Amino acid sequence: MTGTGKVLASQEAADKDSGKQDPLFRSAADDGLARLLQQREATYDLLSRLYREKVDEALISQMKSSRYPANTGNADIDKGYQLIVTYLSNLWEDSLPELSVDYTRTFIGYGVDAYSAAYPFESVHTSQRRLMMQAARDEVLALYRAAGFNKSAGWAEAEDHVSVELEFMARLCERALAAWEKGEEAQAFEALVVQHSFLADHLLPWTPMMTIEMRRFSKTDFYQGLAWLTDGFLKADLEFLDDFLGEG
Amino acid sequence: MVRQRIGDGQYEVNMTHGTTNNETDGTAPKSAEPRDVAQDGTAPDGTALRDVAQDGTAPDGTAKLFNAMPSHRKTLLAILRFCRCPHKVPEVLALVEEERLKSFTHYSAADYCVLLEQAGSLCKVTEDGKDYTQAKAEPAVVEEDGMEYLVANEPPEAFWVTTDAGAAYLEADKPLERLRGLVASESRYQRIYEEVLLLCLDEKGRSIAEIDAALDNDQLLQEPRIYARHFVDLLEKCDALDWVDSWKTSSLGRQWLEEARASETEGGAK
Questions:
Q1: Interchain contact, A85 vs B89, CB within 8 Å
Q2: Residue A90: closest CA among chain B residues belongs to which residue?
Q3: Which of A123, A212, B65, B225 could bridge across to B119 with cysteines, CB 3.0–4.6 Å?
Q4: How close is the nearest chain A Cα to the Cα of B100, in Å?
């Protein structure tokens, strides 16, 4: 599965197709690491899309016809997928409005204080007064720019929205995969190092607090499952990067 | 919203039917005081849609929903009537879509069903009548290349059926009695009610402007000053008039007209 409507625009030329004809380059299908990078990219893209905006008809149809890993060995990931796919197995005419309401209830809320929803912004969870556009936002924006990314014109929210942070991880997976397929191992390794520090320093310190609140506010199995999946996947991905980069 | 006539022809708009604002001037007509419909079979002025729960005939959830959505009454009743026998969800939604087109509502067909379900008037069941919430479909597990995957299953077929609470509310709803009660409480204006219904017997129905033009200058409506659309509003709430691109007398309205004429004829013969 891949997301659509990317928020981050790469300043590099889109040269993914260059070199695919060269017989010296490794085929992704034959290469375990390449397959793993593809799967990681797909999962980050899916998570980013689910947090970015409400589910629409096209996405729900695509999700319903997809398959999801079972018995991954990570209890949170398994629980997350189980809840999401159970919801997808029980769709009816009111499901999209129900998900729309639950998205609003979970991430936007209707209260007057800073505790009325699972606000999906890093600044809210890492600033003393739970405000937006704090130091965390400035830091991640600097990291995006250092990696050659900038915010797309159509994105009106803060750059430390969880959807943007997850998309950053997806684009780095894409970059690592492209470099790996071209035999540029150093560039692939560099992208994974950036991912590791971003995950450890920015995503993981605050997303568990957001997911706790998601489980408190959301009422559908869909968004409950998203909370569990996010927890499990991010922790598992950090373990993978620790192992992989540790060996490097 | 209900208009109450007060003494000098001024109007006081009450937010909830069944209540009066007597403290404002003490001159509200006695007919505006809330009465128990079940006790005397009549309805107070403008309170044709009295909450039947208050006389113990229907549980609170259903009555509360109907009280909160008076302009959606016909649609909600149509659903409860249709679902006396279980019907597949798409069939119920198709019925509701027809009703929606008449009432310019933003509520979807599924919205109405969910609201009724939350009020306890409707429930979703499986084909063999079991509670649908207990029949949740679980994902299927498929294996490919030695790996297991979850795949979304198809849900069991769902049917909507009216609950006992919903059926009780249906039984308690007697629109002809409400209409009789309405006219009885405003017997002075019985002729006006008859004229509105007669006007709207036309196949093409009547617009509100046509009804206004026909009746607004009637002597009876000058003091206190009342406009014809007041009667249209109350007749609609009693299901005597339907809006289908224009105001048309319903079968209930025709039935009452026949009763009224028969009664006048008997009175005349005597």
A1: no
A2: B155
A3: B65
A4: 16
pLDDT for the residue numbered B102: 67
- Report the 10 Å Cβ neighbour count for A142: 11
Q: What is the pLDDT of residue B97?
A: 83
The stretches of chain A forming alpha helices (DSSP H) are 32-52, 57-64, 75-88, 95-103, 122-126, 135-146, 162-181, 185-198, 204-217, 221-247
Tokens of A247: 């060996």
Nearest by CB to residue A67, choosing from B90, B111, B150, is B150
A68 touches chain B (CB under 8 A): yes
Q: With bands split at pLDDT 50, 70 and 90, how would you rate the model's confidence at A9?
A: low
**Per-residue DSSP letter, B155:** P
Kindly report the backbone phi and psi dihedral angles of residue A85, in degrees, each rounded to the nearest multiple of 5, phi listed first: -70, -30
Of the candidates B97, B90, B92, the one whose C-alpha atom is nearest the C-alpha of residue B82 is B92
Q: The complex's ipTM?
A: 0.81
Dihedral sign for Cα B185, B188, B189, B190, please: positive
- In angstroms, the CA A210 to CA A47 distance is 14
Which pLDDT value is given to residue B145? 86
**Which pLDDT score is estimated for B237?**
83
> Would you say residue A218 has pLDDT above 90?
yes
**Residue A79: predicted pLDDT:** 97
Residue B4: in which H helix or E strand, if any?
Answer: strand B2-6
Q: Does the beta carbon of A27 lie under 8 angstroms from any beta carbon of chain B?
A: no
- Cα distance from N-terminal residue to C-terminal residue, chain B: 41
Residues of B in contact with A69 (CB under 8 A): 147-150
Q: How many CB atoms lie within 10 A of CB A59?
A: 19
> Residues of chain B whose pLDDT is less than 50?
1-57
Residue from the list B90, B93, B152 with its beta carbon closest to the beta carbon of A89: B152
Q: Would you state the pLDDT for residue B29?
A: 39
Contact A86 B137 (CB under 8 A): yes
Q: Nearest by CB to B150, from A82, A91, A93: name it.
A: A82
Residue in chain A lying closest to B113 (CA): A94
Supply A167's token pair: 């998309």
Whether A5 has its CB under 8 Å from any CB of chain B: the answer is no
Query: What is the spatial distance between Cα A43 and Cα B32, in angstroms, rounded to a whole number?
Result: 65
